[in-house]
């Protein structure tokens, strides 16, 4: 019997795979998805301003009611759209822009980045940015991937598409199956702080809570002295640097829950 030195081939292969997985998912998860390094997620804390953002639309069953509530309150918001929905409902896409809201990219395919083939995760922001530009005549500036989930391929695709990742600091949990419109209202009011970026949904499961909650929530936020902005106009919004990412208060839950 011949004795071999060094680790067994299976152990070497396992170690290599773990290192590759760590580089592809682990590092982007810890630094970007969880700590939000390089992403915009919060404006200036010294101003009583907020940014409302909506994901997953447009949907003719729910987006018009969201737009109506925003118009009645006299505020503007940012919509992160799915490009197939934007192309399927060009009238709603046009209305979002015509009423002064900001239109940005959510995704072409609404799937968690960890479950996608690397080249598909890489190409999604590139294709999405091109599709939105073809539809609206304007390239998006920001990209919020589904579930706020990142891999190395997602990051490379964002950079290639010249998009800035956009996260949030307050999550409405409107998608949660046990939540009611009142729960959404109370959660956002309790967690809103100056400069916050709030994520809600104008389509999908979250819309069943957001649509009825929104008029009262907007009134309550305004009564609390908040001015509501788009991301483009939110004072002090800038990418989070390494020091800020490592020292900011850690989120109470990882941003992988729900159907964002």
Q: Could you give the topology of this structure?
A:
Blueprint: H1 9-34, E1 49-55, H2 63-73, E2 78-82, H3 83-88, H4 90-98, E3 102-107, H5 118-136, E4 142-143, H6 152-160, E5 164-165, E6 170-171, H7 181-191, E7 197-201, H8 207-223, E8 227-229, H9 242-247
Structure description:
The chain has helices at residues 9-34, 63-73, 83-88, 90-98, 118-136, 152-160, 181-191, 207-223, 242-247, and strands at residues 49-55, 78-82, 102-107, 142-143, 164-165, 170-171, 197-201, 227-229. It is α/β, with parallel strands linked by helices and 260 residues long. The protein has one domain: Glycoside hydrolase/deacetylase (TIM Barrel). Strands 1, 2, 3, 6, 7 and 8 form a six-stranded parallel β-sheet that branches. The chain has a two-stranded parallel ribbon with strand order 4-5. The protein is globular, with a radius of gyration of 20 Å. InterPro entries: Glyco_hydro/deAcase_b/a-brl (IPR011330), NODB_dom (IPR002509), Polysacc_deacetylase_ArnD (IPR050248). One of its GO terms (biological process) is carbohydrate metabolic process. It comes from Deinococcus aquiradiocola.
Q: Short summary of the structure?
A:
With 260 residues, the chain is of the alpha/beta class. 44% of the residues lie in helices and 12% in strands.
Rg (C-alpha, Å): 20 Å
Q: How many strand segments?
A: 8
Residue share in β-strands: 5-15%
As for the CATH topology, it is TIM Barrel
InterPro entries: Glyco_hydro/deAcase_b/a-brl (IPR011330), NODB_dom (IPR002509), Polysacc_deacetylase_ArnD (IPR050248)
Protein name: NodB homology domain-containing protein
GO molecular function, one term: hydrolase activity, acting on carbon-nitrogen (but not peptide) bonds
Domain NodB homology: 48-229
């Amino acid at each position: 019997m011949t004795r071999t030195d060094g680790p067994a081939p299976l152990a070497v292969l396992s170690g290599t795979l773990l290192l590759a997985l760590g580089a592809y998912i682990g590092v982007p998860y810890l630094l970007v998805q969880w700590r939000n390094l390089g992403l915009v997620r919060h404006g200036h804390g010294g101003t009583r301003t907020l940014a409302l953002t909506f994901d997953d639309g447009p949907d003719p069953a729910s987006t018009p009611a969201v737009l109506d509530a925003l118009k009645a309150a006299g505020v503007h918001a940012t919509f992160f759209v799915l490009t197939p929905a934007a192309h399927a409902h060009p009238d709603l896409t046009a209305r979002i822009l015509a009423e002064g809201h900001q239109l940005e990219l959510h995704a072409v395919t609404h799937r968690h980045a960890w479950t996608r083939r690397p080249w598909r995760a890489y190409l999604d922001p590139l294709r999405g940015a091109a599709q939105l530009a073809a539809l609206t005549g304007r390239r998006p500036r920001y990209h919020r991937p589904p579930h706020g989930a990142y891999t190395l391929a997602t990051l490379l695709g964002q950079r290639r598409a010249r998009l800035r990742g956009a996260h949030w600091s307050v999550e409405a949990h409107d998608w949660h199956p046990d939540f009611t419109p009142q729960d959404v209202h109370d959660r956002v009011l309790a967690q809103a702080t100056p400069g916050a970026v709030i994520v809600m949904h104008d389509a999908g499961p979250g819309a069943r809570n957001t649509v009825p909650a929104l008029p009262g929530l907007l009134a309550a936020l305004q009564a609390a002295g908040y001015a509501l902005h788009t991301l483009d106009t939110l004072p002090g919004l800038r990418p989070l640097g390494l020091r800020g990412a490592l020292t900011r208060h850690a989120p109470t839950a990882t941003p992988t829950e729900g159907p964002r």
